[in-house]
């Protein structure tokens, strides 16, 4: 058994203070673990490159985060490709982790490497665009309205850039009292994405900032790639403060334009849309005041005319007119009622007189007045047949002048 394996087998697989691993055992185990990772495709940006005749060394950096690792290769095909690359190029590389036990350093052996072309970048951006659309991050209803008069404007741009000057100059011309909180960041390169994200998060956390402008003054397609970086785009989409994307590139719109709350074509356009023009606003106020005055004067004039019309009505010219009219109506009604009552009574009196004459004509008394008499006995009453009267029977005779008691003979 080799000496190294004997030493490793004699050591405990669980290290402790009493049973520590040797450096050799540790580095061997670490190499085994790293080797098990296998070959991995990695995308990044070459920050350093030192090509030689039979080997090259360099460094591959992350596109967003400040992270990287060393790379090397002795493969002829890789060396041929490396000779055509330069620092700052975006590449895709197939790497195999390699651990140097003697120095304890790691390096990635490049098995294959190629530069990321423009067509591939466009395809990736388009895939990300469709993904953002699918997630609903580009919907109009998600976009927040810009404040009418922001208290404090956050500005993310390159230091001493033309974009910064355009925004500040046009904003001051429109509203001299406007205030800015400026975050200077790189707007291209391998460190730009991380710095832009950090600036967005810092301004978004500031409660005084009412709106954020993310801007740069245009550039080539490669210069604007950072504004289509997925992490930057999602930072813009997740920003709670209204954010304006003013990258200033009409032909190739970066993805920040798609998810921002407002897209400005240029830095100047961003200033015009974020800051109101004091002259225009004063004109609008003057026009509004004139309209209000006209409305008030017109309303008052209409009310005065209405009051004048009411005052000219007869009821207000003579307040007793309505009383006189009602009094005359009552008098006419009383006269009509009296006349109708008199006519009714006269008619009824005539009817009563006629009935009275009829009654008198049929009255027995009138017959008695003509000499007739009514004979009654003391038992059965009216006597109409002499044969029913007995001799000596007491009878009662009613005459026109009164009653007469007799005895039948």
TrEMBL record:
GO terms for molecular function: exodeoxyribonuclease VII activity; nucleic acid binding. Residues 21-113 form the OB-fold nucleic acid binding domain. One of its GO terms (biological process) is DNA catabolic process. One of its GO terms (cellular component) is exodeoxyribonuclease VII complex. InterPro entries: Exonuc_VII_L (IPR003753), Exonuc_VII_lsu_C (IPR020579), OB-fold_nuc-bd_dom (IPR025824). Keywords: Cytoplasm, Exonuclease, Hydrolase, Nuclease. Residues 140-302, 321-405 form the Exonuclease VII large subunit C-terminal domain. It holds the Pfam family tRNA_anti_2. HAMAP family: Exonuc_7_L. NCBIfam families: xseA. This is Unannotated protein. It comes from freshwater metagenome.
């Amino acid at each position: 058994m080799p000496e190294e394996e004997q030493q490793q087998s004699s050591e405990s697989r669980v290290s402790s203070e009493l049973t520590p691993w040797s450096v050799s055992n540790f580095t061997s185990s670490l190499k085994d673990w790293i080797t098990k990772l296998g070959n991995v495709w990695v995308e990044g940006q070459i920050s350093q490159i030192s090509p030689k005749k039979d080997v090259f060394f360099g460094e591959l950096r992350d596109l967003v985060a400040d992270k990287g690792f060393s790379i090397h290769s002795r493969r002829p095909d890789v060396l041929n490709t490396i000779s055509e690359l330069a620092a700052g190029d975006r590449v895709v590389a197939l790497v195999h982790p390699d651990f140097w036990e003697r120095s304890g350093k790691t390096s990635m052996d490049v098995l294959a490497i190629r530069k990321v072309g423009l067509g591939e970048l466009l395809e990736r951006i388009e895939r990300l665009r469709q993904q953002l659309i699918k997630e609903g991050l580009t919907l109009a209803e998600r976009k927040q309205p810009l404040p009418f008069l922001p208290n404090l404007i956050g500005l993310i741009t390159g230091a001493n850039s033309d974009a910064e000057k355009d925004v500040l100059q046009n904003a001051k011309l429109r509203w001299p009292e406007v205030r800015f909180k400026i975050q200077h960041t790189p707007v291209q390169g391998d460190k730009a994405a991380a710095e832009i994200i950090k600036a967005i998060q810092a301004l978004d956390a500031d409660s005084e900032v009412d709106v954020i402008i993310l801007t740069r003054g245009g550039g080539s397609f490669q210069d604007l790639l950072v504004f289509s970086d997925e992490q930057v785009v999602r930072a813009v989409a997740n920003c709670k403060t209204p954010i304006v994307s003013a990258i200033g590139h009409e032909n190739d719109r970066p993805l920040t334009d798609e998810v921002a709350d407002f897209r400005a074509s240029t830095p100047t356009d961003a200033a015009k849309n974020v800051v109101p023009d004091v002259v225009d606003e004063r004109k609008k106020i003057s026009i509004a005041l004139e309209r209000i005055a006209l409305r008030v004067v017109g309303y008052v004039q209409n009310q005065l005319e209405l009051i004048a019309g009411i005052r000219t009505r007869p009821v207000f010219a003579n307040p007793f007119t309505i009383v006189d009219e009602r009094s005359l109506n009552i008098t006419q009604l009383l006269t009509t009622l009296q006349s109708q009552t008199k006519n009714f009574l006269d008619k009824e009196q005539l009817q009563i007189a006629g009935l009275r004459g009829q009654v008198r004509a049929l009255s027995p008394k009138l017959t008695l007045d003509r000499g007739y008499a009514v004979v009654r006995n003391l038992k059965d009453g009216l006597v109409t047949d002499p044969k029913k009267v007995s001799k000596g029977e007491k009878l009662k005779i009613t005459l026109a002048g009164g009653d007469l008691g007799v005895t039948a003979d």
